[in-house]
Amino acid sequence: MQNNPQNEERLSPWWKNGVFLVLIAGFSVLIWLAVKSYQDAPPIPDQIRNEQGDILFTGDDIRSGQEIFLRQGLMNNGTVWGHGAYLGPDFSTSYLYHQTNDAYELLAKQKYQKSWSDLNEEQKEGIRENVAKDSRVNRYDPSTGVLTLSAAEAYSYEQQQAVWRKFFSEPHQNFGLPEKYIDDAEELRLLTAFFFWTSWASVTNRPGKEFSYTNNFPYAPAVNNVPTHGTLLWSALSLIALLGGTGLALFVFGRFDFLGWQQKDHLHPQLLPGEASTGQKAVLKYFVIAALLFLVQATIGGGLAHYRAEPGDFYGFDLSSLLPSNILRTWHLQLAIFWVATSFVAGGLFLAGAVNRNEPKKQALGIHVLFWALVAIVVGSLGGEWLGIKRLLGSLWFWFGHQGWEYLELGRAWQVLLAVGLVIWLVLIARCILPVRKDPERGQIASLFLYAAIAIPLFYLPAMFFGSRSHFTVVDMWRFWIIHLWVEGFFELFATTMVALMFFLLGMVSKKTALRVVYMDAILYLGAGIIGTGHHWYWTGQGHITMALSAVFSALEVVPLTLLTLDAWDFISLSRNDCDECGKKVPIPHRWTFYFLMAVGFWNFLGAGVFGFLINLPVVSYFEVGTLLTPNHGHAAMMGVFGMLAVALMVFAFRESSTDAEWKKLEKLVGLSFFGLNIGLVLMVVMNLFPGGVFQLYDVLANGYWHARSPEFLTQGLMRTIEWLRMPGDVVFLGLGCAPLALAGALTYVNSWRRSSAE
Predict the structure, then answer these.
(1) Domain endpoint, select from 184, 211, 226
(2) CA distances for 693 relative to 217, 298, 684, 689, 697, angstroms
(3) What is the mean pLDDT of residues 725-733?
(4) Is 271 left (phi over 0), alpha (psi -120 to 50) or beta?
(5) At 282, which CATH number?
């Protein structure tokens, strides 16, 4: 027996109120932390002088060095303060290591007239203590804007220009940058000035504090850079928050058994396979292109991994001269964002067309125009990034070339066009949704879908709040508004809304259930995730208050991810619902969509939850950030969660656009892709990323952060073997996962085109 429809549709207003409260409270704290990042950022001195008062370089030189760092895509080779790529070194740490050794050598000559290697252990210990103590003294005078360097620091600055010239000269030691990549003396001087500043901020104590501007990151016990008391304290308290939050969530779910994806009453499907509208058919090519971009992105990832196994050599060919490692990593990251975002954008358009059965006039035309705009952005930005790194764009490099900021590499002009494209996409969705908002059956869920869509272009705006000379700390703050808040927050909420709308239209859940799930996920994800954005800022020049709040709320991010494992079982139960009215098993035509969504639940718990917690917990993040444990989390979470969600949307659209006869052939390819992608990703994690990260983490603890990130360590026997073990996972992922999916997309489009031509 069915429930009374009026009773069915009633939902407590506290669900909506709860979302508003979470948004207001979360953003109030996050905006306050954003303001604090400007206040607490390490100062950039106006002048840097030696003890004799001579000007060595200026603050403008530091900013110019940063521009060279960005223009040449060095954040896609190595890292600063642990953020960036993992092929090359951490530049700030490497500078600090060389500076410490230079200080040892200088003091040995001054005090004993001997080289460092000729000193006895007692003499060495005395010098070590002096250097450690001297390194932490803050000689910056804010009243004059002058930073006075010690004799050892000034000496090292002059010496290290030659060090960095050597580093950039040979692809074998810099993990795939072209030969003599940066060879100009002035550029090397400016770049060294920038590296000095990042190193100085990491070891010099904040005024009135016993720890550095970066909370003593990186781990360098030789200069007393060790975890702070706050790092240990907030790690312990965040664990308590995690255990308490998980216990409370499980209690609530056990007490209120109606939470989650559940359906006990009969519902008739509003969406059946093979009945795609003209606009939905126009959307199909988005998914095809997304699948092809996915294939290219994964192929580039395989080539990129080879740079770690054989630096400077690609099966006998010098790939670095044409496609250096930093451009391959740029494309790998950008294509990941492009294909996932394209799939989400297309999913939104496809479902919007399903909500409004009376397609607006010229909707298909708008979809076609947007498609070619997106193609132009993808092709233009990728080409511009290569031209920018090759120095072929001159002063226009920031606007049309390679911005240099990790994940936001595309030139500013392409960013603007992308934002415009997202607005056009929102308009196309709104044209479908607005006419049905007052519909008693679909109005509420449709409105919620529209609100979630509005957040996508709105929260992309922080990507344009900075430039090439903006303070590194401030940029990193805004950067993670995009990487974490936009992608992991509002894009994930939009994806949840799409899944809820999809299940509702397929007749698998009631409107009430769909609305409740969306509200619940918004409260859980945003409640922890908004403030949790700050776990990326622990070591980038922000104060302890950021760590305190971010650590606790980041720990709570694991709670909703844990609950997602329950969704997998809910999906299984939903797949067993039958439609009594039409006599068909409603979910069966979309079982592979279900399987990919179940995979999302698994990878969300493992990749985002378990592996992500390594980044969230301050004391673990302190030692592991920038090791292979970071891309271990990135691959398992980005591909496992957002990638599988994107593929689920693709498969859903492929099935909806295919007849039963067509799908019988396509289903085999989709099934093969499911197993290929998941098995391949498991092999990557188990055979390469996780063991390599653990081995690297051990070396951090044993020899310091600089050593674990050095070419000497990364190319030695065991580490090199682990890198080669990446290949089996890559082959399975590409050959059995990406390729069949791309073929299924192409065949779906061809089938749809043939039917349309016949009609």
Answers:
(1) 226
(2) 18, 21, 12, 6, 6
(3) 94
(4) beta
(5) 1.20.210.10
